[in-house]
Specification:
One of its GO terms (molecular function) is DNA-binding transcription factor activity. By secondary structure, the chain is an alpha/beta fold. Helices cover 42% and strands 18% of the residues. It folds into three domains: 1-46, Orthogonal Bundle (434 Repressor (Amino-terminal Domain)), CATH 1.10.260; 49-158 and 294-319, Rossmann fold (3-Layer(aba) Sandwich); 161-291, Response regulator (Rossmann fold, 3-Layer(aba) Sandwich), CATH 3.40.50.2300. A six-stranded parallel beta sheet has the order 2-1-3-4-5-11, with helices on both faces. A six-stranded mixed beta sheet has the order 7-6-8-9-10-12, with helices on both faces.
Amino acid sequence: MTVTMADIAREAGCGVATVGRVIHRNGYVSGEARERIEKAIAELGYVPDRSARSLKSQRSSIIGCLVMQSDNGLYYSINDEVIRAAEARGLTCITMEAQKRGGEAALIQTMLGMHVDGIVLISDPNVTAEQFALFRRFKTPVVAIERGYPEQGADNLLVRDYEAVRDAVGRMIRAGHRRVAMIAMEPIMDVERRRLQGYRDALGAAGLGTDDSLIRLGADYTVTFGREAMESLLALAEPPTAVMATADTLAAGVLQAAYAAGLRIPADLSVCGYDNVLSQSLSPAIDSVGLRLNGLGETVMNLLERRRDDPDAASERLAIDTEYVSRGTVIAPKI
């Protein structure tokens, strides 16, 4: 049964014209009404008619990239790699940014309505099983970067986060640090669970064990959270001598808090960031875990092409390697 705009309007308790403004992204709609409409769109699986018609038409030569809004510049570096690879093949790449959790649904509907040739999910959009069913229904290839969706059989590119954090924390321990803090995101996604486990295992391998008072978990990769987390760590009776931050933006906040407390980097506090996007622009430039993004976009294009040619092929799970970039901000602690 085809879902219509009238069905969405009835489910959301509003007029068809209001639904149209949300779908076509023109005109004002209140935040409350927009949320009801987006929820109805997701639950009913609505896709504009032109998407269905496109199944019988030629390819659109459009690739859609879906990114969660974030202060983390890594997401946009990955997006840039995909855009370059798409353009090298004569394709147009459009990027849509979800401003909040749940906002992905309407953007996915829009992309399917544009009959894109493939969708790239960058880092952590919260795509549901129902939305993956839509991808399969319309034979739209999907590649997920940094989040696996193994239960959906999606093609994945996953960063070796566990190994990267375990190595970085291990360097701090080998430098002589025994109180190493971790500032990261809540382990809702696999990526943060892998990073947190890498931290714990590095400590365990050194016989140190995990002191949960040295772990700060937040809701986003913001400088503000990094600063507030570091302030609370410095308030401990025995503060850390080294900090592993799982984004350069978090590390920037660490530096702000350290300077406000009169600490010197790295003389008084060793710091390592993650993603190597902002780290070289900080003062001082800090150690960071960098992703080897060269060739990533081409790999994504190959996976989309393969899936388009063979929708039933077994899913691919490929790794994105990392490298530790040393700039001298992890040194032995003061005695």
